[in-house]
Design brief:
With about 400 residues, the protein is mainly alpha-helical. It has 2 domains: about 10-220, no CATH class; about 235-395, no CATH class. It has helices at about 10, 15-20, 25-35, 60-70, 90-95, 110-120, 120-135, 135-150, 155-170, 185-200, 235-260, 265-290, 315-320, 330-335, 380-395; strands at about 40-45, 70-75, 80-85, 150-155, 200-205, 210-215, 305, 325-330, 340-345, 350. The strands form 4 sheets. It has a 3-stranded antiparallel β-sheet with strand order 1-3-2. Strands 4-6-5 form a 3-stranded antiparallel β-sheet. It is elongated and about 85 Å long. The N and C termini lie far apart (about 75 Å). Bound molecules: zinc ion. Zinc ion binds near residues 294, 328 and 332.
């Protein structure tokens, strides 16, 4: 049988220790995401305590979170701990979770934690599932089942087999003592199993000899689209976009000439814009997370990728350039689009029109609001400057 290839560590920027690591209960992962989002979580190599002394996470758990694509840290030998940063996926999950008041249950049985998360925010649950499905951690498990032509494994030997197989695959070493007092596999593979239990991807049963078996549900595990990946605007992509543009413009010209400006033509124009708009939006989300940059609203459907320089005045390159964008909720997008608000191009401070005086609260604006510093790139400032000029012109 042709073997299916396993994921490459380099494609995910991870190491073997990130792929099979643990124990990392789902609840602890969620609690750590919240701490990392609040910038109070650190990593220390080999640190195994679970009591979060000095806000240092359990190393096993933080390594696994790197494997899931939620966090990253940069080793720095001069520091006792390494600060943990959220990836774009981590930021998005944090946006869902940060309003959660308590702690998620960290027990080995994940059912309580599932209940907590589902009743707090179902979107958070769905997004965590998307992250898991698109992770190297789960994709490898699916491939492992395909290559072994089974989804049923004896619990006793599965963990050892699984760990040993990947250790050899990624580290080229099969030196692994199955009889060591603390088997590494027994400590590490359970985080994978617990995530599978959390999402109901696995059940346990007994075989004819009364031994526990895992029954995985591969049909539930396939990776999903809809995750937002950053689209790099390389020369090729830009050429494609330009090509697409001029093609559609020619087509539009042809159709207008032939049929007049009817629905067909309108449809053609919209479909061209929407693919550029999609790249623009995805890039903003991938870079800054899924939330309004002013008020932190995070419901996908009401968030607008707003052009700073109006799209109608942009060529396709600046139309797709996320430096020319802010992610705003419907309300704030409208205010920004109509030049009722702007952001000072030097400081990022909110500027607002006279008509909004005394009504700031009503429009969910804060007098002293300032754009996050990471948004104030030189390029975005240029676009903001143009927006400022128009703002002052209209609000003299
Ligand atoms: Zn908003």
């Amino acid at each position: 049988m042709q073997k299916k290839e396993y994921e490459k560590l380099g494609d995910y920027g991870v190491e073997f220790k990130n792929v099979i690591s643990g124990p990392a209960p789902v609840g602890r992962v969620l609690n750590y995401v919240i701490r990392a989002g609040n910038r109070i979580l650190n990593h220390k190599n080999g640190y195994r305590s679970l009591d979060l002394k000095d806000n240092v996470g359990s190393a096993w758990c933080t390594e696994f979170m790197v494997g899931l694509g939620l966090i990253f840290y940069t080793p720095d030998k001069t520091l006792p701990f390494y600060p943990i940063n959220l990836t774009e996926k981590g930021k998005r999950l944090f946006a869902y979770l940060k309003g959660y008041g308590g702690l998620f249950d960290e027990n080995n049985d994940p059912s309580e934690c599932r209940k907590q998360l589902m009743s707090f925010n179902e979107d958070a649950y769905n997004y965590l599932e998307t992250v898991f499905k698109n992770s190297i951690v789960l994709k490898n498990l699916v491939t492992y089942m395909v290559n072994n032509e089974t989804n049923v494994f004896l619990k006793d030997i599965f963990m050892d087999d699984y760990f040993e197989f990947f250790k050899e695959l990624y580290e080229g070493s099969s030196e692994y003592n199955r009889n060591a007092r603390t088997s590494t596999a027994k400590n590490r593979v359970p985080s994978l199993i617990q995530f599978c239990e959390f999402f109901n991807y696995v059940t346990t049963d007994k075989d004819v000899n009364g031994k526990t078996i895992y029954i995985f549900q591969p049909e539930k595990m396939s990776a999903v689209s809809g995750d937002y990946d950053f689209i790099d605007l390389t020369e090729d992509v830009l050429k494609d976009l330009k090509g697409e543009d001029s093609h559609d413009e020619k087509l539009a010209e042809f159709l207008i000439e032939k049929y007049g400006l009817d629905g067909t033509v309108v449809h053609e124009i919209i479909s061209r814009n929407s693919s550029v708009q999609r790249i623009f939006r995805n890039n903003l989300i991938a870079k800054y997370g899924l939330k309004c940059m002013m008020c932190d609203k995070y419901i996908d459907e009401v968030l607008v990728a707003s052009h700073i320089k109006p799209a109608s005045e942009c060529d396709v390159v600046s139309k797709a350039n996320c430096e020319n964008g802010l992610l705003l909720c419907a309300l704030h997008d409208k205010l920004f689009d109509r030049y009722l608000i702007s952001f000072d191009f030097t400081t990022g401070k909110l500027l607002y029109s006279k008509v909004l005086e005394g009504k700031l609260e009503e429009y969910q604006l804060k007098e002293n609001f300032t754009l996050n510093n990471e948004l104030l790139t030189n390029e975005r400032r240029q676009f903001l400057m143009e927006h400022n000029i128009e703002f002052y012109k209209r609000n003299k």
